[in-house]
Amino acid sequence: MFMDASQRPAMAGGIPTVRLVLLREDGTEGGVLVIEGGPETIGRSHGPPFDSDAYLDPEHASLSASHEGLLIDAANSLNGVYLKLEGRAELQHLDFFRVGQELLLYEDLPEPTPTPDGTERMGSPNPGYWGRVSIMVGPDRVAAAYPIKDEGVGIGRETGEITFPDDGYVSGSHCRVIGDDDGVFLEDLGSSNGTYMRVRPDQLIRPGTLILIGQQLFRVELG
């Protein structure tokens, strides 16, 4: 149910409710999507505010409210749903993330193993690469790939191993992918426009989190 930001519907007792507050580019509120219990499907075929967003599937994601926040399942959608990173978060193999207008993909690069019959796999000498970040010109089209070794790579408009000098939405030093004994992490470096990670299936989104659904930005609130 999408309504004016000032409205608050009557809620049935005990049913968890989550409000997705639509944020305009100037920071003002543009309306509220109310999720009562669920699951509730959103997408281009489900009316405002998603019906004119070409980056959404007709049946894009399933949303469910809990007393702790919002559960999102967009695993089968083409472009997914993204959450704004606060500080740093763990990166997993095949995680997508967005920096400015750029779509990036992280992949692990484990050491190759022989085939079951003992044949070694041929490849270039590995100087210590443990992962790579790819620039994606579509969900399944790689434009360039950057191997990662040592402590990681930086991403920005002006500095870092991966730069986007023509993207005005990318900060000079925007974010970095780092690896340590605890795992692999994506860390925002205080960028102006934020770093966004694709939501994993049934991931719990806490109140106060900003999420991108297609081209629209929402703030998650408990009802």
From TrEMBL:
Gene3D superfamilies: 2.60.200.20
Record Pfam families: FHA
Xref: InterPro entries: FHA_dom, SMAD_FHA_dom_sf
Location of the FHA domain: 153-197
Protein's name in the database: FHA domain protein
